[in-house]
Amino acid sequence: MQETADQLTPQSKTAREHPAWVWLGFAVTLAFVVTAAVYNRAQLFTVSSYDSYALQAKAWREGLMHLPGNLAHLELAIFDGEYYVSFPPVPTIPIWLLQWIMPGGVPSGLLTVVYLLLCYPLSYLIGRRYIGARGSAILAATAIVGGSFLDVAVSGSAFSGGVWYQAQALGLLLTLCAFHSVPHPRKAWRFAGWLAIALAVGCRPFQGIYIPVLVWMQRSEYLAANHDGDADGSGAEYVDPARRLRWFARDVLPYWIAPMFVATAMGWYNWARFGSPLEFGHNYLPEFTRPGQTQFALSHIAVNIFRILRPPFGAYSTEMADVAFPLWMGFAVYLTQPLLTDASASLLRRNPDTGDWIFLCALIVHFLLLLSHRTFGGWQYGTRYVCDMLPGLLAVRLRNRRDPGLWECAFLLILAAGNLAGTIAFHALSGM
Q1: What is the rounded CA–CA span in Å between residue 395 and residue 141?
Q2: C-alpha distances in angstroms, 218 versus 10, 156, 223, 243?
Q3: Closest alpha carbon to 283 in 102, 275, 19, 123
Q4: What is the predicted pLDDT for the residue at 230?
Q5: pLDDT value at position 71?
Q6: φ/ψ of residue 168, rounded to 5
Q7: What is the pTM of this model?
Q8: Phi and psi at residue 106, in whole multiples of 5°?
Q9: Average pLDDT, stretch 16-35?
Q10: Scanning 107, 155, 221, 257, which has the fewest C-beta atoms within 10 Å of its C-beta?
Q11: Distances from the Cα of 425 to the Cα of 307, 325, 365, 397, 431, angstroms
């Protein structure tokens, strides 16, 4: 199916048209955060004992790439007798900067909350390109605090602001920034968007899957802005390969200069530590160096699918005790990730076009890669790995350009309230 430039381009709308809705959505988001923080006993104003990034930032200030020693409770990579943070390095940067003005320590739990709150306006602004203020506010709020991501950013007790949650929260924020800025008509925003996705890869490497999606989004904006089309003047997207190549060289490659510097810097950092530009350390965790403990494998997919389809209540055996609530390896993705269910239903209600297929392929590949991980997030509420897919799922839902109706709003809001209660119950049952 051919798409016209008008179909490809988001509607031009601003938050100023209905400011009450954007603030109402933010108030709901903040209320969920505060409620979760209080009931989960989140330690927002302390340095988490699981904040490996704080240790890495301190090592950087001392001119070191490795940590001075081992801490048994942290996931540290061991290579050539030295200990390293085993997670991609970009989340260390804001902590390194903040340590200059907070020498006593950066409150890592508060940092993940700030990342979550910044995700809301970006999600809202993405929505306003396609639908009205009310629908954008509802979709933005429920996407951010309606599922498992709330527990990522506002976890319980000492886990607040842990290394895993910082990487995921900042990665999601940067990916949303890319989805908002890459198709922006202003060049400065496009430069910022491409830089954001490069930094997102330095938080969660699989976010690089969305680079082809972002190229398509930028091309869609170009088609609309230039009223480009076939020779017959129909407005359909052009198919001349030479013209596509010229457009790519002129209107995409210049924006990749800064991201290439970021990629080169991260590749050098990985090579300097582990001898490979693609190795950030996870393969050198003790749990993955033992025989039979492969980090990624196709055989993990079927097992993880079974786990994430489990209902939220039943008789489950965990590493701690027999409980009536799954505490490990995920559960009920269809409930704990409402946007996944909502976006899938939205896609089924229309005939997919070119953009839908591009988004769908990226999301399927991303989902399968996440499912191929041995632990799929380990101890967690719901399915926290799927939070990485939220920007793509939000875009798929918005592409039908329909404001959410009564039943859709009820579905999203009821599940949001249910997941808030669920994350509180999760921490109460697990004692953490």
Answers
A1: 14
A2: 11, 40, 9, 15
A3: 275
A4: 40
A5: 85
A6: -70, -40
A7: 0.91
A8: -90, 125
A9: 89
A10: 257
A11: 19, 9, 32, 30, 10
Extract long-range pairs of 100-105: CB within 8 Å, 24+ residues apart. 105/46, 105/47, 105/54
Tens of pLDDT along 334-376? 999 999 999 999 988 888 888 899 999 999 999 999 999 988 9
Cβ atoms of residues 415 and 143 within 8 Å: no
269: left (phi over 0), alpha (psi -120 to 50) or beta: alpha
**Rounded CA Rg of the chain:** 22
C-alpha distance from residue 414 to each of 128, 271, 427 (Å): 23, 48, 20
- pLDDT, tens digit, 9 for 90 and up, residues 44-61: 998 888 999 999 999 999
Q: How far from the centroid of its chain's Cα atoms is residue 47's Cα?
A: 23
Length of the chain, in residues: 432
pLDDT at 229: 47
User: What is the SS3 assignment for 147?
Assistant: coil
Block residue for tokens 């340095």: 47
Q: What is the DSSP letter of 236?
A: B
Confidence at residue 318, expressed as pLDDT on a 0 to 100 scale: 57
For residues 174 and 199, is the Cβ–Cβ distance under 8 A? yes
Q: How far apart are CA 44 and CA 59, in angstroms?
A: 23
Question: What's 79's DSSP letter?
Answer: E
